[in-house]
Amino acid sequence: MSGKPRLAVVVSHPIQYYAPLFRTLAQRCDLQVFYAFQPSPDQLGAVDFGKAFAWDVDLLDGYASTFMTNVSTRPGTDDFGGCDTPDVGRHLRAGQFDAVLIFGWYLKSYRQALMAAKRQGLPALVRGDSNLAMPASPVKRLVKAMVNPPFLRLFDRALYVGERSRAFYRHYRFPDRRLFFSPHCVDNDWFAARATRAERQRMRAQMGIAEDAFVVLFAGKLVERKRPLDAVRALAMCRAQGRKVELLVAGSGVLEQAIRAEAQAGDLPHYMLGFCNQTQMPPAYAAADVLVLPSDGSETWGLVANEAMACGTPVIVSDACGCAPDLAADGSAGRVVPLGDVEGLAAAIASVMDDPPTQQAIAERIARYSLDRAADGVMQAVRSLPQGQGAA
């Protein structure tokens, strides 16, 4: 494929993590993003956050985008039928694209886009973070074993976001020659520029945190699958051992009162920031000494870990998190602990206190998971396609 390719993207709705990638891609190809759903502030906050909100960064600037007509009677992104866009084929045909990149297959809109591409002879790429650790019943695993290999081969190229994503495609016998690395990433430079020493001092002074306190940050929805209470209990253990640790929580959700109660019972100093919008996150990372992400296997990646590391903050993640083998497994930029092992989490926190990862090690690791590398992977996959031919 010569010249600047025309690439369509089909994705559920504007997402703060994807907008920077689309801006980067728009500098390398003729990009058009098609959204299946335009959520209201109430719809954005309806699931887990418990409050209406709108992102405080522009998610549509820097690239061309179109909101397709969603005919779903219950629009949303949590159920297969929540995004139903039968006109996706018309959009793809009118754009005369060289390829379409589809961000998964769990929504009806994604299946509609794939089927439209096959009918039109338009090469289809997929990028998602499914992995084999995701919770599933034995029956569901059996069905996937039969259905996934032929279904995934309908995609001409697959973009894996990390080690477990690649293992997923290989498990279902997707050809290696059609796999390309497009890592999960955030705008590392944007976060780093806003996580300054001055912001660390300002945030700590604002909350009354001593400069010599070791601050552990939990960032995310306060829901069971994220397991924030594991962090509270691990820190209470550290306090019982005489360690000067304190908890900073950036997030909202149904477990907020339980976190407060357990922290008070464990004599753990804690600071609840509530829901933090995008521009509020870098100062929170700067104020912390480590981020903990104890989530279960439903955490197919955990991009808060990328954000923290972009700010120079090491991470401790459970071995169920999709990002674990990529960002923290070797110990250079963080630690990995077994899911649900509160004592192990306490030991990992103590380990980071006693032997913290260096800023250089953190920077070197997160540099592998950048917008440029993610965009490079997409463009390599697109340019590998035989012109006028799908599934080669």
Automatic annotation (TrEMBL):
The species this protein was found in: Aurantiacibacter arachoides
GO MF annotation list: glycosyltransferase activity
Alphabetically ordered keywords of this record: Transferase
Family matches, as SUPFAM superfamilies: UDP-Glycosyltransferase/glycogen phosphorylase (SSF53756)
Name by which UniProt lists this protein: Glycosyltransferase
InterPro entries for the chain: Glyco_trans_1, Glycosyltransferase_grp1
Highest taxon in the source lineage: Bacteria
Occurrences of domain Glycosyl transferase family (ranges): 200-365
